[in-house]
Amino acid sequence: MNIYFIMVPAFGHTNPTLPLAKELLNRGHDVTYYTVPSLKESVESNGARAVVLQTAEDPADTISNRDGAPNEEDLQGHMMHMFVENQAVTNEVMNHLEQEEVDVIVYDPMSAWGKAVVLTTQAKTVSFNTSFAINEEILTEIAGTFSFPEQVARKIFLSTGDENIVPVPYSFQPWNHYVGDEYTFVGPLASKRKQQEDEELRQLFKEKEKIVYISLGSVVSNREFYHKCIRALANEQYHVVLKIGGSTQIEDLGELPRNITVKRFVPQLQVLENADVFLTHGGFNSTMEALEFGVPLIVAPHMADQPLIAQQVESLRLGVKIDANRISEEALRTCIHSMLHGGYSTESMMTMKDEIARSGGIPLAVSIIESRKKESS
């Protein structure tokens, strides 16, 4: 089979599909991604072919790695380019596909050009949601979460393929009573990807200290909050691994206490496998990876679907929500201490881990894609 992935060309949208693509390649299928320069290496190192789009913005050059959250105007413009309408990229992808023999298109229902292509293609289509499943009823419920007019929100979120894969445990899906059989919940896939381990961290984890992992993701770098964490958590009886992203330099944070390790980037799966608490921005992939490892969450959301994710974490008793900009040093220290000592439901976490283990994962997702070819044969 010739399988083409049309995802939003951003780390958080492409990364969850790479283990799926790897398994498809292992089964003898050909896999191609339409992507951007910053993701080319990730795609190709996985064994897939990368077609670099000449007309698409690369998020690595626009909103990523700034100090502080992107301002509303920048974020709106970026999301309109990626999610709503971009005829230049649509034309580029369509022109390339016309020269290819295509069996199945796996697309991101938030990708502007992905949605445009599936409306005209004769190939079978499989949507791969990189957040929650969203239909008309759920869109009505979350209308206040995103700062878009309803008409724009419809263009961003409402799209379905012949099959629809959701890499989420069913119980974590908000308003799941609105979701029908057209969606298949396969559970998280991103933790199956391979990462090279950090030797310094490997040695640290051998010491068997409690580990608090702090990361605000790949888009936002919040220097003020990093300073707050260092002051609040200095010399506590646990070790803090603080990931600061690309725009902040480690030396900007001054002298570090003995119990705090700061790195610009970390192999997140290695850290989560050893972490006791994860303070996160609530990115979709980070949250799913933490739940798969059974790590309780402190969620500090700042944009997009993160407030909704934080709401789910709190309502399911898998962690708590904070405001990174408003929380005091004392309250932050108290919050982490509470989470290290049972400030969440261990029963709920074990139930979630068990559900994830039974969700079907990559084998189920692969079988859905392969079934599309059988139907078209």
Automatic annotation (TrEMBL):
The record's annotation in SUPFAM superfamilies points to:
UDP-Glycosyltransferase/glycogen phosphorylase
Keyword set, alphabetical order? Glycosyltransferase, Transferase
Erythromycin biosynthesis protein CIII-like C-terminal domain location is 238-357
GO molecular function, a single term? hexosyltransferase activity
CDD domains xrefs: GT1_Gtf-like (cd03784)
InterPro entries per UniProt = EryCIII-like_C, UDP-glycosyltransferase, UDP_glucos_trans, UDP_glycos_trans_CS
A UniProt-annotated Pfam family:
EryCIII-like_C
Task: Give the family from UniProt.
Answer: Belongs to the UDP-glycosyltransferase family.
PANTHER family in the cross-refs: EG:EG0003.4 PROTEIN-RELATED, FI06409P-RELATED
Protein name as annotated: Erythromycin biosynthesis protein CIII-like C-terminal domain-containing protein
Which organism does this sequence originate in?
Pontibacillus halophilus JSM 076056 = DSM 19796
Q: What is the lineage of its organism?
A: Bacteria, Bacillati, Bacillota, Bacilli, Bacillales
